[in-house]
Amino acid sequence: MTRELSQPPGSPFHPANIPGSPFHAAPGSPFVAPIAAASPFHAPNPAGAASPSPYHNLLADNPTLAATTKSANIVWHEGDVSREERQQYVGQKGATIWFTGLSASGKSTIASALEQHLLHNGVTTYRLDGDNVRFGLNKNLGFSAEDRTENIRRISEVAKLFADAAVIALTSFISPYRADRDSARELHEKAGLPFVEVFVDVPIEVAEQRDPKGLYKKARAGLIKGFTGIDDPYEAPEKAELHIRSDLEEVAVSVKRITDYLVEKGYITLKA
C-alpha cells in the first residue's frame, strides 16, 4: 500500500518525522538550518521571533521597492531559461506596442487588425484590450485617478511578461495620464524590452461623432463622471514612436506603418 506523500505534520508518515528521509528535520538538515550570514539572502531575525527568518527585512535596503509592495519575505527565483535561449527556440523577440488615445479614437480597431496581420505573417502576438481586461484581471478597479493608475500599472506588468516570453504584446488602453505611460515605458526599459508608444489621435469632435458605445453622449448628459476628454484630462504623448491620425488614414495604412516600423527596428521578422 502506498501512502500519500502529503501528510499532516503530526503524522508519523510526515517526511519530517521519518529518520533517514531527505526531508527529515534533524539538526544539520538543509531544510531547517538558517542561511549563513554571508548569504545575500540572510537577514536579521525579527524581534521576539523564536526561530531564524532567513528572508526577514529582505526589502529593508530597498526603500523604493518596499514602498510599492505589500509582499514581504519574497525572493526572485531565476529560472534555467535565459531570454536569449527562449527567443532562439521561439524564433522571435518580444516587445510591447502601447496604443493610447481617446475613447473611439480607433485604438482597438487598429490593434485588432495589426494582431491578425502579424499572426498571419508568422509573428506570435497577443492583444490586451482595455475593456476586456476589466472583465477579469482589473474587474475590481473603477475609473478614479488612483484606479486608472493601478489599471495601467497592472497591464504594464502583464505586457512585460508577454514581451519577456518573446511575444509581441499589443495593449489598447486610453491610458490618459502621461506619468502612467512613462512608468510603463520605464518598466520595460529597465528589463531590456522594447516599448513602442503609438498615439492614435483624433479631434474630440470626431471621437464624439463616432461614439460607438454611446459613452460621450452619456458623459455630456452627466450620466458618466470623470470621462476622459470631457471632464477628465487626456495628456497627449510628447514623444510617441508613432503618431497616427485615424481620421485621416485607413486602418490598413496604419497597420502597414506600424509593421514597417517594427521590421525596421529589428523587433520582428515577417515569415509569411
From TrEMBL:
Top-level taxon of origin: Eukaryota
Signal as UniProt keyword: no
UniProt keyword list: Amino-acid biosynthesis, ATP-binding, Cysteine biosynthesis, Kinase, Nucleotide-binding, Transferase
Record-linked Gene3D superfamilies: P-loop containing nucleotide triphosphate hydrolases
Chain residue ranges for the region called Disordered: 1-25
Catalytic activity: adenosine 5'-phosphosulfate + ATP = 3'-phosphoadenylyl sulfate + ADP + H(+)
Role noted for this protein: Catalyzes the synthesis of activated sulfate.
Protein name: Adenylyl-sulfate kinase
